[in-house]
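A reminder from the course coordinator: this example appears on the midterm review sheet, so study it carefully.

Given structure:
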């Protein structure tokens, strides 16, 4: 009987581990990061990760970096991006932005409604997607 109970618990834990979404990095008040998908790519040791990031009106995601490239597609609202070495740029729904690996950058919602982006990362596996800069 103990063996049957232990086997059941093991199966439950294994199922929970397989179906539970990957952890979302660096949540901040007024910013919601929702991981949509994560897949290995043909470059060994790398993966593609897509995340929807929602910014409440007036909220900002502070300076940070990623361990790979970030491709941004603005879904809604007006988002201002500050990328190291460049002048700030304000993007609207349908606009895109490319951020090279390791580049310090920040984003904030400069509109009066929700702002959202689809961020696609091509990154080294096993590294944190977001590293905040103090």
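Designed residues:
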């Amino acid at each position: 009987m103990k063996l049957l109970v232990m086997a059941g618990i093991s199966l439950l834990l294994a199922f929970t581990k397989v179906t539970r979404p990957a952890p979302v990095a660096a949540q901040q008040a007024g910013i919601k990061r929702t991981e949509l998908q994560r897949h290995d790519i043909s470059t060994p040791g790398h993966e593609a990760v897509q995340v929807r990031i929602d910014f409440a009106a007036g909220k900002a995601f502070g300076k940070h970096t990623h361990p790979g490239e970030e491709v941004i597609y603005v879904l809604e609202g007006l988002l201002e991006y500050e990328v190291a070495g460049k002048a700030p740029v304000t993007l609207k729904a349908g606009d895109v932005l490319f951020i090279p690996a390791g580049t310090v950058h920040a984003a904030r919602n400069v509109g009066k409604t929700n702002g959202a982006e689809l961020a696609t990362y091509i990154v080294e596996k096993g590294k944190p997607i977001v590293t905040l800069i103090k």
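The chain has one domain: 24-132. Residues 2-26 have pLDDT under 50 and may be disordered.
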